[in-house]
Each structure stands twice: as C-alpha cells, then as structure tokens.
Design brief:
The protein contains eleven helices and 15 strands. It is of the alpha/beta class and 344 residues long. Strands 3-2-1-4-5-6-11 form a seven-stranded parallel sheet, sandwiched between helices. The protein has a four-stranded mixed sheet with strand order 8-15-14-13. A two-stranded parallel sheet has the order 7-10. It starts with a strand and ends with a helix. The protein binds NADPH dihydro-nicotinamide-adenine-dinucleotide phosphate and guanosine-5'-diphosphate-rhamnose. Its cofactor is NADP(+).
Length: 344
C-alpha cells in the first residue's frame, strides 16, 4: 500500500489532496499544528475525517527532530509539503514567522528525508508569488523571479532549497509553481472566497457592502481540485522537476466581483476611481462594493498569468474548470452555508 504524508491537512489543498490520495488507495498521514482548538471543517466537508486510511498527526514545521521521527514513524514514501503561513498580507506583519514556517519548514523536511531515506519523494508547494514583479508574460518555468512580499521571498527559499537538494543529494524533489487556485474550501481571508461569501450574505440580506483593496490586481485563477491532481502527477513522473500549473487566463479582482454577483443574479455597475470606486446593484441602486485602503498591501503583485505547457506535455495535466464555473460553485456553496448559518 502506498503511504503519503501531507503537511497542512487542515488547509484547502491538504484536504483536496488527502481526498484524492485516499481515492487512489493510499494511506495518508495528514499533519496539523497544535492549537487549543484545531479546526477540521474542510476534511469534514469532504467527509474523509473518519476514513480508516487517514491518520491525523500533530507536527511542528519548525522542529527538525519531529520531522525525522515523523518520517520514521509513518514510513511515508511521498511527502507533500503544503503547510505554510500562506497569506501574503499577513507576511508583511509577520515576516520572521513566515520565513521560519514557509521557508525553513521545507528545509526541515528535506533534511529529514536526507537523514532517514533519500529515496522518499518530496513535493514543495511553490507559488506564482515568486514571479511578483513579472519579468515576462506569460510566466513559465524559465521566467526570472522577483518576489514582492516576505511570503514570496520565503517561498523562493523553499523553492531553491528543493532544487538544491535534488542536485546535491539526488533527492526526488519536485517544485510545483502553482498559480492561484480557489474552491469552496478556500479560506475567507483570500479575495475570491471573501467575495463569494460576501455576495452570498448580500443576496440573503445579511450584509450591505463588501469592502476590498486593490481591485485592479490581475490573477490567473484555477480550481484547487484540478491542481492537487497535478501535485500527485509530479511525484509519479520519471524525473523530479519544476512545473508551472496555471490556466493561462487572467482577470482583475473587479471582474471576479462582477462574476460573483452575476452568479447570484445581481447585476452590478462600477463607477468612480481609485479609493472612491464603488459597485452599485443596478436593480436597487444600493452600493454593494467599496474600496477600503486597509486592504492595500505595501507592495503589490499586479499581474499574473501562467503557461502550464510543460506540465501538459510531460504530465498530461491541464486545468479543466473555467473561472465562471468555479465562481458559480463558490457562490452557490456560500449561499447554502449562509442559509445554514455556517461561518468558516
Ligand atoms: P491554506 O492557508 O488553506 O493552508 C495552509 C495550511 O498550513 C493549513 O493547514 C495551516 O494550518 C497550515 N499552517 C499554517 N501555519 C502553520 C504552522 N505554523 N505550522 C504548521 N502548519 C501551519 O493554504 P492552501 O491550502 O491554499 O495552500 C497550500 C500550500 O500551497 C501553501 O503552502 C500555499 O502557500 C501554497 N500555494 C497556494 C496557492 C493557492 O492559490 N491556494 C498557490 C500557490 C501556492 P491551520 O489550518 O492550523 O491554519
Ligand atoms: P494572493 O491572494 O495574494 O494572490 O495569494 P489573495 O486572494 O489574498 O489576493 C489576490 C489579489 O486580490 C487583491 N485584493 C485583496 N486580497 C485580499 N485577500 N483581501 C482583499 O480585501 C483584497 N482586495 C484586493 C490582493 O491585493 C491581491 O492582489 C494567494 C495565496 O493563496 C498564496 O498562498 C498563493 O501563493 C498565491 O495566491 C498564488
């Protein structure tokens, strides 16, 4: 039986990847961090928490001895390192913690692999945030990096140390440079889910107005469920490598706002500029979106659009879900949850 270790089981990707691996017959060890009240709402939504092949284990990413014990104890042959301080905005307020968790966390696992068994395969969750101030359009595996946040810089360290361990110790270390991927399991602090949850609340009369920061930012958004499949494919390949996963389509946050309201049968019109820009419900004349500079970042990533041509050619991976379908899925799920009083 195949055994996999997934760090960050309580996160969006951890939940979907665990679901996929269980479907494929793996025994999955999913790690979570110790807190006074751990929240497993995502694996509960996917109804996999009670699967006998899923084991939840406490693990601190910054503790190398724990990583060594974890690998010895689980016998994992594939390690997917998804745990991270993953919110770009917070990384400006907590840069050191972000470096230790998001950057050094990957090194601890690679060191543990080197010590315990260098044939264990390793997946590192790299990110399009490493492209930051983009040097080419679209971005692919050969595009130079220019991260724009402490998060992006920490991820760049983890990316390069994965490549370094591949080259130095022949470890099967893959780095997936994934562009933004969303789902009904996305955290509410990220812009798409913040929008779909707020749209649902506005539709149900529970909220008047959604507040956002930079709505000119452009992102290449895909569906998380499609992307975890790409992670698995990378670790099944003949050679360890670096792959971009993306949809090759980019839209502004403003476009996503309009799309989400449309999915809830609300038509909106935008007017004004900069911090004075608003969106108004054309049927009622009510303001449903406004700008709050509190959500602006010290440095912004303006435009991301990726080419996943290499992943398609070598892994046979391609994004399957359109942004319209993804957005509708998220709005419908947030409408259901808000009707039921769900608050995650
Ligand atoms: P989430 O924020 O949903 O999940 C992050 C996970 O990391 C959670 O399980 C979280 O635990 C855990 N974590 C956070 N801090 C710590 C810590 N100090 N110690 C241990 N665990 C911790 O992220 P996603 O699922 O969206 O992303 C998965 C990975 O992929 C992340 O590394 C992210 O940076 C990266 N990535 C994500 C992209 C995306 O668009 N989603 C794109 C590219 C890369 P808890 O639940 O307790 O907070
Ligand atoms: P991002 O995602 O920073 O791309 O990182 P996020 O959804 O947080 O922001 C996307 C863009 O929207 C703009 N924005 C807002 N963002 C948030 N969160 N809240 C707002 O109110 C708001 N208003 C405008 C942001 O400025 C930004 O330009 C995500 C994370 O999942 C990372 O872990 C991952 O590596 C990258 O995607 C790829």
């Amino acid at each position: 039986m195949k055994i996999a270790l997934v760090t960050g089981i309580s996160g969006q990707d951890g939940a979907y990847l665990a679901e996929l691996l269980l479907e494929k017959g793996y025994t999955v060890y999913g790690t979570y961090r110790r807190t006074s009240s751990v929240n497993f709402w995502r694996i509960d939504e996917l109804a996999i928490r009670s699967n006998p092949n899923l084991h939840l284990v406490e693990y601190d990413l910054t503790d190398l001895p724990s990583a060594i014990r974890l690998l010895k104890h689980t016998g994992a042959r594939e390690v997917y390192n998804l745990a991270a301080q993953s919110f770009v905005g917070v990384s400006f307020d907590q840069p050191v913690a972000t470096a230790e968790i998001t950057g050094i966390g990957a090194l601890n696992l690679l060191e543990a692999i080197r010590i315990v068994d260098p044939t264990i395969r390793f997946y590192q969750a790299s990110t399009s945030e490493m492209f930051g101030k983009v040097q080419a359009i679209p971005q692919d595996e050969s595009t130079p990096f220019w991260p724009r946040s402490p998060y992006g810089v920490a991820k760049l360290y983890a990316h390069w140390i994965t490549i370094n361990y591949r080259e130095s110790y022949d470890i099967f270390g893959c780095s997936g440079i994934l562009f933004n991927h969303e789902s009904p399991l996305r955290g509410q602090e990220f812009v798409t889910r913040k929008i779909t949850d707020s749209v649902a609340k506005i539709k149900l009369g529970k909220l008047d107005c959604l507040e956002l920061g930079n709505i000119d930012a452009k992102r290449d958004w895909g569906f998380a469920k499609d992307y975890v499949e790409g992670m698995w494919l990378m670790l099944q390949a003949d050679q360890p490598d670096t792959f971009v996963l993306a949809t090759n389509r980019t839209e502004t946050v403003r476009d996503f706002v309009a799309m989400a309201f449309k999915a809830a049968d609300i038509e909106v019109a935008f007017s004004g500029e900069g911090v004075d820009e608003v969106a108004v419900d054309t049927a009622t004349g009510k303001k449903v979106m406004a700008i709050n500079p509190r959500f602006h970042r010290p440095a912004e990533v303006d435009l991301l659009i990726g080419s996943a041509a290499k992943a398609e050619q070598i892994l046979g991976w391609k994004a399957k879900t359109s942004l319209e379908d993804l957005c509708r899925l998220m709005v419908e799920s947030d409408l259901r949850r808000n009707q039921a009083g769900f608050s995650f």
